[in-house]
Amino acid sequence: MRVSSAAFSELDDLVELWVELAADQRASGSHLRAEANRTPIREALARHVAADGVLVAREGDVSNGGTEVGSSAEDADADGLVGFVMFDIEAGAYEQDATRGMVRNLFVRPAYRDAGVGTRLLAAAEDALADAGVDAVALDVLADNEAARRFYRRHGYRPHRVELEKSMRSDTHSKEDG
């Protein structure tokens, strides 16, 4: 498996990976609509690619205990992208006492999970952010996505800020799912 910077020519493939990520996150309570956000995520990915803030994992010697995983053509797209991480340096209106790097999205196709791909992508993003001078790296994870929470805990991430949400839906005042 090779991790490298994404190219503009890979934007369509990156959008497909993000749509797959967003669709998966719906099972953990995400409000993002995967298909409806193709245009905004394409624009965000293009900005991040231009700023060297997207790394991709390409199919290659991905192995799990010496056995190649995800080797069929249907498991990887034509270019062999099996995962990506999108990151940047946090920018905001407030002065802070620390410069924080932000991991915005990290996704590995299911056939390639538990083979070290996510670990390699996360480490490469952390290295790039450290080289840029950040003091800490932060990310968001859905509360109901226990697998992601375990993954990030294994890599040293701890709760820093907790977001709470209250549903305002009722029988007479609700939104359609579509």
UniProtKB/TrEMBL annotation:
InterPro entries assigned: Acyl_CoA_acyltransferase, Bact_Acetyltransf, GNAT_dom
Domain N-acetyltransferase: 1-173
GO function terms (MF aspect): acyltransferase activity, transferring groups other than amino-acyl groups
Pfam families found in the cross-reference section: Acetyltransf_1
The organism's place on the tree of life at top rank: Archaea
EC number: 2.3.1.-
Keywords: Acyltransferase, Transferase
Name under which the protein is recorded: GNAT family acetyltransferase
Species in which this protein is naturally found: Haloferax volcanii (strain ATCC 29605 / DSM 3757 / JCM 8879 / NBRC 14742 / NCIMB 2012 / VKM B-1768 / DS2)
